[in-house]
Amino acid sequence: MQPASASFIDDLFGPNYETYQNSTYNVKVDYPKDWEYFHPEIDKKTEPEQIFQVMFTTPYESGNPDPGGSVSVDIEDINKLKPTTTLEQYKNRVMKNLKEAGKDVKGLSLSTTTLDGETAYRIEEQMWMLDHWMKDISIFSVKDGKLYQISSLIRPEEMDKYSEAIENMFKSVKFH
After folding, report:
1. Which of 47, 58, 59, 164 could pair with 67 in a Cys bridge, judged by C-beta atoms 3.0 to 4.6 Å apart?
2. Is this model's pTM higher than 0.90 or not?
3. Tens digit of pLDDT for each residue in 22-79?
4. Mean pLDDT (the chain, rounded)
5. Is 1 inside any structural domain?
């Protein structure tokens, strides 16, 4: 990780943010100083398309073994899934899968946006995970056969507490 200029980050989001930077994959994202990050192990046998992932977790609350939520930044080689997959094809596949989930997904919405200057889609929904609902927000774009994505997964009751930080991370992510 290489820290960015403190005054630049302070001007954007205030003094409570740091910059995560990975020069190997040209990924940069600003995140709250009290969040932790780690690189989950990528199993190439089950996820051959996965190139890069870093996950940021919200602070742990006293007495709770799990964080309230997380933000993940991913790069995937989607041509390994289906050669020459376009942004539209990927969006259609994701929407189809979510709609087929039935009662385990609610509040599904889709909108156009940008991700690091590229045309992108934003999908929001709540999904049933084990024994509770989680709010999922994903923004993704496709360029040169690669999927670039930033997504958050957070307990709905925690959204008010973390929505500003999540949106700041979404705005700050760079893949160049």
Report:
1. 58
2. no
3. 999 999 999 999 999 999 998 888 888 999 999 999 987 766 666 778 999 999 998 8
4. 89
5. no
Other C-beta atoms closer than 10 Å to the C-beta of 170 total 20
Tell me which residue has tokens 């820290």. 3
Question: Cα separation of 144 and 75, whole Å?
Answer: 12
Per-residue exposure over 68-88, b if at least 16 CB sit within 10 Å of its own CB, e if not: bbbbbbbbbebeeeeeebebe
Round to whole Å and give the CA distance between 78 and 50: 8
105: burial class by Cβ within 10 Å (0-12, 13-18, 19+)? middle
Residue 147 resides in a domain: yes
Helix (H, G, I), strand (E, B) or coil at 33: coil
Q: Is residue 33 part of a domain?
A: yes
Dig out the tokens for 128 from the structure: 């049933």
Q: Residue 146 is encoded by which pair of tokens?
A: 């690669």
Give the count of domains, the chain.
1
Query: Domain containing 30 — which CATH number?
Result: 3.40.1000.10
Strand partners, 92: none
Please state, as a whole number, how many other Cβ atoms lie within 10 Å of the Cβ of residue 128.
Answer: 14
Which residue range forms the structural domain that includes residue 117? 6-172
